[in-house]
User: Fold this.
Amino acid sequence: MPQYMLLIHADPENGPAQGSPEMDAQLQKWFEYTERLRSAGAMKSGDPLQPPATATTVSQRNGERLVTDGPFIETKEWLGGYYVIDVPDLDAAIDWAGQMPNISYGSVEVRPVLEIPGM
Assistant:
């Protein structure tokens, strides 16, 4: 079956506040969503990510390595986490993306994982 990466994007200003009862309820929804993926046999991997302020961007130009604090681009929305799922097709991946707890205030990029034969 093909694998898809579900990239979770959100503007933290639009979601529940850290430490609030709403955030506790939101976290419970994430735990339940993850368990549904596992129970369906679709879950391959997934994790939340630290905030963009913890990111380091690495590039190389003219043979020189450049290391910069922060993400590559500035944006209000940031990549908060990901899931890699193994499902029959894009429609199934979209269905799973549409069930994410943040879908009402964020977005989910659904991207097929490139399969390289022999790897």
In short: The mean pLDDT is 90. Residues 21-39 form the longest helix (19 residues). The domain at 3-112 is CATH 3.30.70.1060 (Alpha-Beta Plaits).
